[in-house]
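Task: complex structure prediction.
Instruction: return structure tokens for all chains below.
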Amino acid sequence: MTPLLQVEGVTRRYGARIGCEDVGFALWPGEVMGIVGESGSGKSTLLGCLSGHLAPDAGRVLYDAGSGGGAQDVTAMPEAARRRLLRTDWAFVHQNPRDGLRMNVSAGGNVGERLMAVGARNYGAIRARAEDWLGRVEIDTARIDDRPSAFSGGMQQRLQIARNLVSGPRLVFMDEPTGGLDVSVQARLLDLLRGLVRDMGLSAVIVTHDLAVVRLLADRLMVMKGGQVVETGLTDQVLDDPQHAYSQLLVSSVLQV
Amino acid sequence: MYVAVKGGARAIENAHAWLAEERRGDPGVAELSVAQIRGQLTLAVDRVMAEGSLYDPDLAALAIKQARGDLIEAIFLIRAYRTTLPRFGAAYPVDTGAMACDRRISATFKDLPGGQVLGPTFDYTHRLLDFKLAAEGETPPAARAEPDPAAMPRVTEFLNQEGLIQGEAHIDTSPPDLTREPLEFPACRALRQQALTRGDEGFVLGMAYSTQRGYGRNHPFVGELRVGTCSVEMEIPELGFAIEIGEVELTECETVNQFAGSKTEAAQFTRGYGLVFGHGERKAISMALVDRALRWRELGEDDSGAPAQDEEFVLQHADNIQATGFLEHIKLPHYVDFQSEVELVRKLRAAVREAPDD
Amino acid sequence: MTDDLREYNFAYLDEETKRMIRRALLKALAIPGYQVPFASREMPMPYGWGTGGVQVTAACLVPEDRLKVIDQGADDTTNAVSIRSFFARTAGVATTERAAEATLIQTRHRIPETPLREGQILVYQVPIPEPLRFLEPRETETRRMHALEDYGLMHVKLYEDIARHGAISTAYAYPVKVAGRYVMDPSPIPKFDNPKLESAAIQLFGAGREQRIYAVPPYTQVVSLDFEDHPFEASKPDHPCALCGATDSYLDEVITDDAGARMFVCSDTDYCATRQAGGAA
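Output:
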């Protein structure tokens, strides 16, 4: 088996300031990697570089589409190929659902967009898929023609997840997927995400400052500080027995879950 | 029996004749001469030249007469005429530092070499209707002084000597020409300024005003505003050297704006620049503010989402000839499109009527 | 603007400008449906009144041409009259109202009912050339979408129409895909005319204010966007023409009295007149 994603020496600077520096790891099929750190630690910059939203100054992000063509460096891909990847094999869940949804398009249109982008041309079939996915993320299918602006924050986030997963991606990037939601809503969303990840055998990279999220979802963990990875390991291992002083601080600063 | 409407050609001819009559007005009142417009409505002439992108006061005055005083219509006439003119070559950039100034003020220094020269300005007039003008009395001559032979260096040059203000990048390549090449984005600063200098005065003013009210605020001071004449020089290939081919009146505004800098880069003021044909202070200042607002990317500022920072928004909508044409074209018949919409609405309504009640 | 026009070059524009436009036209024909930027000139008629079409026509006209100009399908609407007389004066070309006799037809909002043949040129006046414009206002973004063939959003719009109205609610300027590649705005023709976009004639589209030229070469595939289960339909009022009896032509609805009585007549005046003269009905 080869890694789905092989990250090597990814570095991104903002002028003299370091965004992230010399980050490398491998993500295996079906694996969920959590990246934790406080704000400014470089985790969101790293996620941007991995997902093709930001161009790294150095390093490679090799993705193996599993089509037999071997791994390809995403950072060196032509834009057309990268966009195709972003709307088929990959998905990106933004912290703020407004960034990931079309707010003036109905829930059904939002979910159907990725299908239409890759050539689906049967209205009834697209609608049926959208209904199925609304059900899977626990949104009443009667609301298929409502716009997301009429949805609660938790529903918007679940809609964003449906919109991303409808195309059956292999790799999902998530940026603080539960940020900005009430605690009770967070729990329900985490439950849902865990179920989907397990059922679909998804690989994912999740950036969060919330250790409860990674405890529940991530197989492995990277702790970042000042743009660098200071500790990496199995989630339980890192959370229960942190080695680096910063990891210890991070773990002790929150209630255990 | 229904007969379709005919006679469009006749209707147009008659409309033109009527229009000509309306333009002339009461034949009992003396006709306005082009020379009078040129000599007495100079600011209107200047605006038509600036936004028409053609420096010719006589033609601009003629256009104003023909357009019945509708300046946008006059600008349109000038633009359409300009299209047909052959291009013999390009002049050297005019040296506005060597301008023979009628007016030159700075808001950033109390006094400066060359002095503050108020010139012919409305600024400190009291806006009271002058009923004496209705009586068409002669105006007494204004006091005169000898021209000051001393140079009038640009205010921003003083700041530049200290390194207090960012220098302007020197570019060796010829700037693109908005009137000869399609506008494509992102546009370089030269192209943006071309669009602004021929842009609608009201639009550019509104954009500039919005930056002052916080939509893309950049803290401008009028470093210098100067109005006067500059000589235009052009190299004649047959001669192999440059000769002066004429003079143009220009208004130039340089603003001193919010400084940029960081821990590693020393703080410096930045600039906005406005230049228009003729005496057009409002336009030149507005242009400088909008020019500065559009520079946010190169200066490493945040995009606050303000309209004046949005290059596509500003440049695509600044041209009043494009705007007025497209706006007014909805007067043209659209009954084919409308008919197809009527059909669709009827069909959708019928579908709702026929739908079984839930 | 009467006899002064004789002072100008053949068909008003100078030869340099025409050459620039012809280059854009050739590029447009080589890449069907692709919008070629061109340095549109200011014309003596307002932007939005056909300046793009006029420039394309000016660049194509030769002295032997026979020109027809229609607006809403009719030769005698004011803007058609104005543009026809402009070229009659500046180019001195012959004019005609017969689609079959014309070598070049400039149109606004219609395609003639009479099928066009090889050797004819149809020039469209285009207000907004960008089919994605009302989905995405930014030119930099729409150009990227075309370049990457990223057209999902276009179908999202059609999906939304059906979800809301039960049918695709675009009645004119109905988007098409040309030669399997570029999504194109056919200009605000009624969707009834869309099937005629596959033609033996050369079709050229000029957008003056937006500085774009595009083209559909003869015998090029033009597909109106739709869904398999909501197929495109070239609809028209379900009446015969009250004047010539045609059942296959696009109709204008005319209100004939104060009581709101109405009748339907051919929008293509040449087609209607020819049928009436031929005694058809």
